[in-house]
Amino acid sequence: MIVLFGSRKGGCGKSTTAVNVCAALANRGNDVVLVDADPLSTAAKWVMDRDENTDLSKVHCIQKYDNIRDTLIDLNNRYEYVIVDAPGKDSRELRTGMTAAHKLIVPFKPSNADLDTLEDLQRIIVEARDFNPGLEAYGLMTMVPTNPVIRERKEASEYLEDYPEISLLAECICERKVYRDALPEGRGVVEMDNSKAASEINALIQRIF
């Protein structure tokens, strides 16, 4: 299965979520490859840090840019799960990735700056389905404030109702320091001592797969 993490805006936790999904899948004994299609190479650097610790489960990784369609299709024949980290912008990698992916996960913060990108992204999804009719697109709210007084989560949910091509996941990723702490260690939060963050990723895994 090919799962593409992509958005039209950086800073939404896209790479962080992608690598955490990889770590969780690997810990379950799945054969997973991470395709870093973002020139920032955040995901590939995470894998390099991870490889230094032989106690951690293996996550394979390749870097591929421009037209990634054929690469994804080939990898899908060799791995159980192909997780793709696309650039946080409208890019060739994002568009060609959509023509091969089974599922697109769109991370976004519950903020106006992120929500304003969804209209154009929905148009791109519609165009991609001309080549890949089976593409499923899901919105994943990230960096959600844990303070129950803040209503951003509810407001963002209502906003997404105007974009029927992107189904909002009930699961979300909250703003937690452990996500930042795990990244330079090459770990996922399922490998850290934080049950709340681990539960978020496990719930997301259960929903996606």
Count of the domains = 1
Form type: globular
**Largest pleated sheet:** 7 strands, parallel
Structural class: alpha/beta
Uncertain segments of ≥5 residues (pLDDT<50)? none
Kindly report the CATH topology.
Answer: Rossmann fold
- β-strand amount: 15-25%
The CATH H-level superfamily is: P-loop containing nucleotide triphosphate hydrolases
Q: Output mean pLDDT.
A: 93
Query: What letter string, H or E per element, gives the SSE order?
Result: EHEHEHEHEHHEHEHH
Question: Helices and strands in order, then pairings?
Answer:
Layout: E1 2-7, H1 14-27, E2 32-36, H2 42-51, E3 60-63, H3 69-76, E4 81-88, H4 92-98, E5 103-108, H5 112-115, H6 118-128, E6 136-144, H7 152-160, E7 167-174, H8 177-182, H9 195-208
In short:
This protein is of the alpha/beta class. Helices cover 40% and strands 22% of the residues.
Structural notes for this entry:
- The structure is a single chain.
- The chain is α/β, with parallel strands linked by helices and 209 residues long.
- The protein has a single domain (2-208), classed as 3-Layer(aba) Sandwich (Rossmann fold), CATH 3.40.50.300.
- It has nine helices and seven strands; from the N terminus they run E-H-E-H-E-H-E-H-E-H-H-E-H-E-H-H.
- It has helices at 14-27, 42-51, 69-76, 92-98, 112-115, 118-128, 152-160, 177-182, 195-208; strands spanning 2-7, 32-36, 60-63, 81-88, 103-108, 136-144, 167-174.
- Strands 3-2-4-1-5-6-7 form a seven-stranded parallel β-sheet, sandwiched between helices.
- Strand 2, helix 2 and strand 3 form a beta-alpha-beta unit.
- Helix 1 (14-27) runs parallel beside helix 2 (42-51) and helix 1 packs across helix 9 (195-208).
- The longest helix has 14 residues, at 14-27.
- The radius of gyration is 16 Å and the shape is globular.
- The termini are close together.
- The mean pLDDT is 93.
